[in-house]
Write a structure and sequence with these properties.
Layout (H helix, E strand, L loop, with lengths): L36 E5 L7 H11 L3 E6 L5 H10 L4 E4 L7 H12 L3 E6 L6 H4 L8 H22 L3 E10 L14 H19 L5 E7 L5 H4 L4 H11 L8 H12 L9 E5 L8
Parallel strand pairs: 1-2, 1-4, 2-3, 4-5, 5-6, 6-7
Helix pairs in contact: 1-9, 5-6
Length: 283
């Protein structure tokens, strides 16, 4: 479920945590992440969760590298990289053999180290995603697992030698990993595997003082979401059931990610962090 490309040029205002339309020195939130460098995978347009993370991390002073899926996607991502003054922009299709390795070799040459990675990509073939899980194809399930879950493992593998102590890896999950959510279908088991992977990676990388997290936002209108059948019903359910009767936005997700990769979360690892306005608490 790669994110939808969008040609609009302005970020809609958020009632809860506005993003700067253009990053500059006056748009800084603070210096919490000054001197830290990180890779953000999954920016496709300005509504991407990955872009909300990139903008917030830049606002806190971090240097960021962004990726784009292919040449077709580049014209949509490059202006966003320029807008937030991203230091590096690289192609990455995790299905291409050697693609992940090439990104990390480039970052090793340019930077020499990393402090954080945000992994925000997922995909499932539409015909499998829209059907019952009992009917999903072997090929579709394996493709969804490779892109949505194993790619995070591959990223962690190649990041090991670049990550400085105190670094963090963050991926994106959803409530459907833990509970059966109508129409989420095959992605539920895939995201459950991803959350389990987070715990095992946290154990593997702990001796290197690298922390690992899954962030689980509520429903957000990205292309990943648009692939879900009857997604508007998920949105309506969230609006009816959250304590504040609202959805979260990408800026709020980005702010939580900034906390996780910063020093404030040094005592946490292997956790799933919900950013869904309390939806997961409601019966």
């Amino acid at each position: 479920m790669h994110e939808v490309t969008d040609t609009s040029s302005s970020i809609p205002p958020s009632a809860h945590d506005p993003l700067p339309k253009v990053w500059d020195e006056n748009a800084r939130i603070g210096e919490m992440l000054k001197g830290r460098r990180g890779l953000i995978i999954g920016v496709a347009n300005e509504h991407s969760i990955a872009f909300g993370c990139a903008a917030k991390l830049r606002g806190f002073g971090a240097e960021v590298a962004l990726t784009y899926l292919n040449e077709k996607a580049k014209p949509y991502v490059q202006p966003l990289a320029e807008r937030i003054q991203a230091d590096v922009l690289l192609p990455l299709d995790v299905c291409e053999p050697g693609g992940v390795q090439a990104v990390f070799e480039s970052l090793r040459e340019r930077w020499g180290y990393l402090d954080f990675i945000v992994h925000s990509i997922a995909f499932a073939p539409k015909h499998d995603l829209h059907g019952r899980i009992v009917d999903c194809s072997r090929e579709g399930f394996l493709q969804a697992m490779q892109i949505s879950c194993h790619s995070f493992i591959e990223v962690a593998h190649h990041a090991q030698s670049l990550m400085r102590p105190g670094g963090a890896l963050v991926t994106m999950s959803y409530y459907g990993a833990d509970k059966v959510v109508q129409n989420y279908n095959m992605m539920g088991p895939v995201k459950a595997a991803l959350e389990s992977t987070v715990r095992y990676l946290a154990a593997d990388l702990g001796e290197s003082r690298v922390r690992v997290y899954a962030v689980s936002p509520g429903p957000l209108k990205t292309r990943a979401a648009s692939g879900i059948d009857h997604f508007d019903e998920l949105v309506r359910m969230a609006l009816e059931r959250t304590p504040e009767r609202r959805l979260v936005d990408i800026a709020e997700v980005g702010r939580v990610v900034a906390f996780l990769v910063g020093g404030g979360a040094s005592g946490m690892t292997g956790d799933v962090i919900y950013v869904d306005a309390g939806l997961h608490h409601m019966a």
